[in-house]
């Protein structure tokens, strides 16, 4: 019997989706029941946990993701460490849902992006692109005793795509409408927008990274609090500040905002160097700390406005915000002030904002084991549809 035959024979599967994002704040695990595959996919969420990383682990992720230090020794150990942390998240979500881990049929693990280079650059006498997600899937496979799908992005990149964003495939299956054009804005470390034209097909879907999500805000918070805080809980600090008009206009000169899709970005662009420049400019303008944070928060909202106004031929009837940014009322307030459409959160539609990306990788894993193409070439720029993911048995 083929090792995957029992999955193909079951009417529904218990699947864990795992995500560790650019914010590097923890490992998300969603336990879902998936019935069917392809256009008929139905998903019911059973549980969700987000296990925060220790300060040591988070610092190591950020150090390695800068791309300036850390060799093969560090990458080797980090690869297996993240596999162990992913397994612990799987065990935790099973405990929360009251499910024996032995009942899990499949897991889909995104891993942690350490570096993403979507545009060719010179290397060893060649022009090369690449993307690197770590988190050893065999650790999960051994610990759960079920197949694990991992390393999704590389297949799309090999087919000429930018390997991001990947979530739009799952979003099409879950959120599409016949009568309305739906905008879906995820705000994790990076912001990414998906537009599902009304009555459209997967090929009509378009999506791209809008710019920073929480990433710049988080770094500003860390700097103005001397490292005491990682993020602006509930947007409370930004709410105490005022957006500085001149600093915002300087931020809006960011060249990435004018790049036409398909496009993707990450910590390589909006990391320490970007925030160094922001803080230098804030000092030059004499901007107070809380005003810098308020301006960075407004900048995230303005990046989304620019994306909608300049690149959306099908303007959404409404925008649904997911990810950690959906928990920031100050950011949501700024979005509602800048966009001329209703701004909702996933919970308004009966979905879980925090679990969205983890659920998406459960869906992508289910498509992979059924041999179905699970990228969206109109989104990533790939030459053709491909089956993303490597299967560990």
Q: Give the name of the CATH superfamily of the largest domain.
A: ATPase, nucleotide binding domain
Structural class of the helices, strands and pairings? Answer: alpha/beta
Total number of beta strands: 12
How do the SSEs run, as a string of H and E?
A: HEEEHHEEHEHHEEEHHHHHHEHEHHE
Count of alpha and pi helical runs: 15
Please describe what this structure looks like:
By secondary structure, the chain is α/β, with parallel strands linked by helices. The protein folds into two domains: 5-164 and 356-392, ATPase, nucleotide binding domain (Nucleotidyltransferase, domain 5), CATH 3.30.420; 168-349, ATPase, nucleotide binding domain (Nucleotidyltransferase, domain 5, 2-Layer Sandwich), CATH 3.30.420. It is 39% helix and 23% strand. It contains 15 helices and twelve strands. The strands form two sheets. Strands 1, 2, 3, 4, 5, 6 and 12 form a seven-stranded mixed sheet that branches. It has a five-stranded mixed sheet with strand order 9-8-7-10-11, sandwiched between helices. α7 (215-224) packs antiparallel against α12 (289-311). The chain starts with a helix and ends with a strand. The model has no long low-confidence stretch (mean pLDDT 96).
């Amino acid at each position: 019997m083929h090792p995957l035959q029992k999955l193909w024979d079951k009417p529904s599967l218990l699947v864990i989706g795992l995500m560790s994002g650019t914010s590097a704040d923890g490992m998300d695990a969603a336990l879902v029941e998936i019935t069917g595959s392809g256009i008929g996919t139905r998903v019911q969420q059973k549980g969700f946990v987000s296990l925060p990383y220790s300060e040591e682990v988070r610092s190591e992720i950020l150090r390695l993701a800068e791309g300036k230090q850390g060799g093969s020794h560090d990458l080797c150990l980090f690869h297996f460490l993240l596999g162990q942390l992913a397994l612990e998240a799987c065990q935790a979500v099973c405990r929360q849902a009251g499910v024996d881990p032995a009942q899990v049929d499949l897991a889909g693990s995104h891993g942690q992006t350490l570096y993403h280079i979507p545009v060719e650059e010179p290397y060893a006498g060649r022009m090369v692109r690449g993307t690197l997600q770590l988190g050893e899937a065999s650790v999960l496979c051994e610990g759960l005793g079920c197949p694990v799908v991992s390393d999704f992005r590389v297949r799309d990149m090999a087919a000429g795509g930018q390997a991001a964003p990947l979530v739009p495939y799952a979003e099409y299956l879950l959120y599409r409408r016949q009568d309305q054009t739906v905008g879906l804005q995820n705000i994790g470390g990076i912001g990414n927008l998906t537009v599902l034209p009304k009555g459209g097909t997967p090929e009509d879907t378009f999506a791209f990274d809008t710019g920073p999500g929480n990433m710049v805000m988080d770094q500003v918070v860390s700097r103005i609090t001397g490292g005491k805080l990682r993020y602006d809980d509930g947007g409370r600090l930004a709410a105490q500040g005022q957006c500085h008009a001149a600093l915002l206009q300087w931020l809006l000169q960011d060249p990435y905002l004018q790049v036409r899709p398909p496009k993707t970005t990450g910590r390589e662009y909006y990391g320490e160097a970007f925030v160094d420049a922001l803080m230098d400019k804030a000092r030059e303008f004499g901007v107070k700390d809380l005003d810098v944070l308020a301006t960075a928060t407004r900048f995230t909202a303005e990046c989304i406005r620019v994306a909608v106004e300049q690149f959306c031929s099908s303007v959404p009837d409404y925008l649904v915000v997911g990810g950690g940014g959906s928990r920031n009322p100050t950011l949501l307030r700024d979005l509602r002030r800048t966009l001329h459409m209703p701004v909702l959160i996933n919970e308004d539609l009966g979905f879980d904002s925090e679990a969205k990306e983890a659920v998406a990788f459960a869906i992508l894993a289910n498509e992979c084991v059924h041999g179905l193409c699970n990228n969206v070439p109109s989104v990533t720029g790939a030459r053709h549809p491909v089956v993303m993911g490597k299967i560990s048995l």
